[in-house]
Amino acid sequence: MNDKKKKPQKLRARLPRGFVDRSAADIRAVDEMTGKIREVYERYGFDPVETPLFEYTDALGKFLPDADRPNEGVFSLQDDDEQWMSARYDLTAPLARHVAENFNDIQLPYRTYRAGYVFRNEKPGPGRFRQFMQFDADTVGAAGVQADAEMCMMMADTMEALGIARGDYVIRVNNRKLLDGVLEIIGLGGDENIDRRLSVLRAMDKLDKFGIEGVRLLLGPGRKDESGDFTKGTGLDAPRVDRIVELLEATKDSPQATLDAISALAGGNATAEQGFNELDAIASLIIAAGYTDRIFIAPSVVRGLEYYTGPVFEAELTFAVTNEKGEKVVFGSVGGGGRYDGLVSRFMGQPVPATGFSIGVSRLMTALKNLGKLGMEEVIAPVVVCVMDRDTESLGKYQQFTQQLRHAGIRAEMYQGNKKNFGDQLKYADRRGSPLAIIQGGDERAQGVVQIKDLIEGKRLSGEIEDNVAWREARVAQVSVPEADLVAKVREMLAAQAEDRARVNRGA
Questions:
Q1: Which of 290, 312, 316, 282 is CA-nearest to residue 299?
Q2: Labelling 454: which of 81, 321, 496, 508 has CA 20 to 30 A away?
């Protein structure tokens, strides 16, 4: 009998599917981007609010998949009182709960913004994650479409604050009442046609992907793609398909021209006319504010969620990028939103108007990287204070130097590794990308001086200089200064390095 104990099996480190670890560069890029978005939202008078990651599942509402299977589409768990809770699916439904719960204590209109992660329990794939960040702004308690128009203007200002040039983006606006009214006109009104209406809206939403002829096929008999896969159509007859296509093709170069093109399509139906009138009011505000070169009335904007009740809008980037297949494609939507007057009302039993906009942070970050608009703010690696001696007095001195640099606003760290060899410490600093190393052995301490090694210049000298004359003429790569002058000399050497980088960037 073998009495040897089995070795405990080593745990395998593995990242859950659909989730990502974020690097320092990505975190800084997101912070840089969200900081610029926040500045615009604050300028418009919006204030931050934060809701928890979890909500009771019923608060997230009918917009989730089957309520009898709370884990379908969302991540859910049961509380100790057997109530189902779910990780938030978006940032809008939690806001609706927050407003309803605190309705008597908040000032209406309630203007807030929130940035945070949302979670989808869906099959992950390329560019499709189970956790991603959104950045929302909402106005609750304002019934007038001026609140919707302001959202569109704020999104335009946000794009430009992020460095996206005018002409590289558009904000497109439509109204669900116009769409619903046109569908009523062609005989798709009533509860009995809900599923068919949704199929038609989904087909219309494919305009950017498949073009007008592809949408015609999806509205009619169906469409076969290049691989031979067939998507069943909605089965509309030709006159009804023509009416919808006429609406989709009504987008013109100016808000007023677009409204003129769709006015005949809305006539005779109260719902469609109400949607048309709201778009007309939004167009007037856009024209008055001088945003007609950025914000367009576009009847093809659908927005998928069922809770939209009026104006809907999307921010789209119009420049081309190369996809994973090597094809040039238009980047497309980076955010959207609209009016959702019924969402807060579910909790209140009374009408509570609301409108909002959500930015997909990860997708927008990808776009900004393509444009070279992120990571421009330089992050300098910390200065490394080497540990030459490990007695208490010496360590105290090294810690003193480190704190002096930090208090002066300079990134710094005292070497914390186990390597006692000085060369290994310099290798660590080099791998860290550190600009300078601070060195003080026993002899320097006795003299009250400290050595500062320019690691950037030292690396250049070792690679480029081949003779003693060139070495003598080069910038000194290591200097000795009195302890009292440490901070001032470090600042001076970092400034010289920054000037060198600027000269290289200028092509000098």
A1: 312
A2: 508
> Exposure pattern of 346-374 as b/e (b: 16+ CB <10 Å)?
bbeeeebbbbbbbbbbbbbbebbeebebb
Other Cβ atoms closer than 10 A to 159: 27
Q: Which among 174, 109, 113 has a CA at the least distance from the CA of 354?
A: 109
303 is in an annotated binding site: yes
Strand partners, 140: 110, 354
Domain ranges of the chain: 17-143+341-379, 166-312, 384-505
Q: Is 90 marked within a binding site?
A: yes
Query: Same fold for the domain at 17-143+341-379 and the one at 384-505?
Result: no
pLDDT band at 325; cut points 50, 70, 90: low
- 392 labelled ligand-binding: no
Q: Output the CATH code of domain 17-143+341-379.
A: 3.30.930.10
pLDDT for residue 1: 53
208 is in an annotated binding site: no
Q: What is the pTM of this model?
A: 0.83
CATH code linked to domain 384-505: 3.40.50.800
Contact 298, 250 (CB under 8 A): no
Q: What is the pLDDT of residues 123-143, one digit of tens each?
A: 887 777 899 999 999 999 999
Q: Is 307 annotated as a binding residue?
A: yes
Per the annotation, does 117 bind a ligand? no
Q: Which fold has domain 166-312?
A: BirA Bifunctional Protein; domain 2 (3.30.930)
Tokens of 69: 């299977």
